[in-house]
Structures are given as C-alpha cells and as structure tokens.
UniProtKB/TrEMBL annotation:
Keyword Transferase attached: no
Taxonomic classification: Bacteria, Bacillati, Actinomycetota, Actinomycetes, Micromonosporales
Keyword list, A-Z: DNA-binding, Transcription, Transcription regulation
Gene Ontology terms, MF aspect: DNA binding; DNA-binding transcription factor activity
Native organism: Salinispora tropica (strain ATCC BAA-916 / DSM 44818 / JCM 13857 / NBRC 105044 / CNB-440)
Domain HTH lysR-type as annotated: residue spans: 1-59
Xref: InterPro entries: LysR-type_TF_proteobact-type (IPR058163), LysR_HTH_N (IPR000847), WH-like_DNA-bd_sf (IPR036388), WH_DNA-bd_sf (IPR036390)
Chain segments carrying region Disordered: 288-310
Pfam family, one: HTH_1
Protein name: Regulatory protein, LysR
Claim: Transcription regulation is one of the keywords in the record: yes
Length: 310
C-alpha cells in the first residue's frame, strides 16, 4: 500500500466533504480515491468516514487520524521539494580559461538538459589544480599527459600567413648564418605551459639548433595570439583556436603534441556525470575529437581515475 497516496486522498476528501470534490482536488478519479481510503481503513482496522448519509463525515477515529495524515502529506511534499533542490545543486567545475565563452555556454546548456547544473570557474592549469586541491570546486578538467587522457587535443603551429607545406619542421625556423633572417619564435600560451608539453618542445627545438629564446611562454592567450597576428611568430595551439583567431594551422612534424585532459573530482557521482554523460559536450568545448573513447589510447583499466583514491 502507498500510505502517502492513501493519506493524500484521505486529507483531500475530508477537506472537501465529498469523494467527488476531494478526488478532483487530488487529481485522481473518484474510484481511485475511494479504493485508497478503503485500503487505508482496512490497514488500520477502523472506518475513517461515516458513509451512512449523503454527506461524508469523519468518524471519531478519522478525526484523530487526520492530523497525522496531514503531517505525513506535508512531509512528503517537503521531501519532494528538497529532492528537487538537491538535484539542482550547482556542480562547480574548474575549466580551461582558453575555452571560448560560446563553447562554455554550450557546455553549461548541455548539462542543464541532463539536469546537471554546472557552474564553471575558468583557470589556467596550475589554477585548476589549486581550485581542486582547496575544494573550491567539486571537480576540475585537469591537464594530464596524452597517454593518460580521456580527451586529447592535437597541437600544431599557427601563423598569420599560409604554410608552404602540410608539415612544418622545427629546423626551418633556425636563423641563417648571416643572421639576416629574423628569429621566428614559437609562442606557448599558459594552457600549454605544463611540463609534458613545454619540455619536449624545448628539447626538440634545441636538438635542431633553435635558440633558447625561440620557444617562449606568453602571459596570456590573447598576448600570444596578438603577437602571432602581428609578426612572423608562431602560436602553439589547437586547430580550433587557430580558426577562432583567423590563423593558418599546420601540423608539427618533429613531434606529435597533444593536450591531454581528465576529470579530477571528489565525488564518484560527479566524476561519472562529467566523464560519461557530458563526454561529447566537454570534447566540443575543449576542441577535442567528438566520439567514443578509444580503449587503446585512454587510461589503463588497472589505473585509478584522476580524483579517485588509489
């Protein structure tokens, strides 16, 4: 027996003095209201209503039970409201500050369609790590090496002028012996200022004779893009970013660089919602490939996911 539903019918009928009016107020057919009240009477072993006349009157037992029935219905309604508020709690998540606002808005909208109410906190990689560590957010999209990543974003070089070939080699950026050729720098934006991206690129540049100053970290993505738009310098970025800034993008031949991302979260439920439910939406926001996760390239099954205890 659904005690709450039966008590709801009992309270409605008692309040209207009629099975017909009470059932209508409760949004159920009269036959259903009668059956639920009869089941409640059978359960308690006593009549709630005196049905000997046309008017519906509470019996003394019914009068004694009405207060408790009302309290039970009110508690059930309050519990439903609390559950709705709990479902709507914001899930605060640290996201790359390199994500364009329109794609972040699309991610938040996608979450709402899945009843996941995201509250985004844009930050650079170090900032996202700090926000997760200090529990200022419930989860974070954190930078990880590509071989450990759930989402991977290819990186290449972007220029204001088209590239002569489909691949660009680092050695072509070397300054000529006469020094007449200007040194073209590779600009690293803050999102890529992480050891697993910055260090391999720096080593590869040194191995082909680039000057130390030809691989430079910039204060912001805006600064890096502005420099690439106004000089021969090259921006290390994703194809999506190159398109957004109106730059020509080319694959780097010397080494395959990919941004890698995973989710760090304190609660397993938050982790699974972001990794599974919103996987394609996060991919689009990051500029990663939208598709099923590749079993061969993602996290190994015997390794705990980021944000989970080892």
């Amino acid at each position: 027996m659904d005690v709450v539903a039966a008590c709801r019918a009992f309270v409605a009928v008692s309040g209207h003095g009629s099975f017909t009016s009470g059932a209508a107020a409760a949004g159920i057919p009269q036959s259903v209201a009668s059956r639920r009240i009869a089941t409640l009477e059978e359960h308690f072993g006593a009549r709630l209503f005196d049905r000997s006349s046309r008017a519906v009157r509470l019996t003394p037992f019914g009068q004694d039970m009405l207060r408790t029935a009302r309290r039970l219905v009110d508690l059930a309604d309050a519990m439903t409201e609390d559950a709705e508020r709990a479902r709507l709690r914001p899930l605060r998540i640290a996201v790359p500050d390199s994500c364009p606002p329109n794609r972040l808005a699309a991610l938040v909208a996608a979450g709402r369609r899945q009843r996941i109410h995201l509250e985004v906190r844009p930050a650079d990689p170090a900032g996202r790590e700090r926000l997760c560590r200090t529990l200022e957010v419930s989860a974070g999209i954190v930078a990880v090496p590509a071989e450990m990543a759930v989402w991977r974003v290819p990186l290449g070089l972007a220029s204001r002028t088209p590239f002569p070939a489909q691949l660009v080699f680092l050695e072509t950026l070397r300054t000529g012996r006469t020094g007449a050729q200007a040194r073209r720098r590779i600009l690293i934006q803050p999102e890529d200022d992480v050891a697993h991206l910055r260090d391999p690129l720096t080593r590869a540049g040194q191995s082909v004779g680039l000057a130390l100053t030809q691989v430079a970290v910039t204060p912001s993505l805006v600064d890096a893009a502005a420099q690439a738009l106004s000089s021969p310098d090259l921006l290390l970025c994703s194809p999506q970013q190159a398109e957004d800034f109106g730059l020509h993008w080319c694959t780097l031949a010397d080494l395959g660089l990919h941004r890698g991302y995973d989710i760090a979260a304190g609660a397993r439920e938050d982790l699974e919602q972001l990794r599974a439910v919103l996987h394609p939406d996060i991919a689009r926001c990051l500029g990663a490939h939208v598709g099923p996760r590749e079993s061969s390239g993602g996290r190994q099954s015997d390794m705990p996911p980021a944000g989970e205890p080892r």
